[in-house]
Design a protein that fits this description.
- The chain is of the alpha+beta class.
- It has one helix and six strands.
- The longest helix has 19 residues.
- The N and C termini lie close together (12 Å).
Length: 107
Amino acid sequence: MKSNLLLCTNLKTVMQHETLLREGQSYNGVLSLIDDDWYLFEESVRRSRPALNPKLFEGLYLSLTKRKDGRYYVNMKSIDRDELADPTRLAAAVYRELLQALINTHP
């Protein structure tokens, strides 16, 4: 996951129900670059039930989710048998990915 800060840009929003973005609220939709410094965000139609545990990070070895109670959960993915041949290399790769997930979640 990469993070960018775009200065001096204009953002037009097309929302389903709200007119203004609310602080701390997450929105699903499409962000498009219209011109050099103009962006358009179109909110998608809301499903009847929001996702229970949104994924904050999706990697090769693990994913990071946040529960409604505010706790973060690390979920390991399946590991190929070939990767178990060098456990030190595998552990280092998992550690690097976890560190990347935590840094991207809390810059």
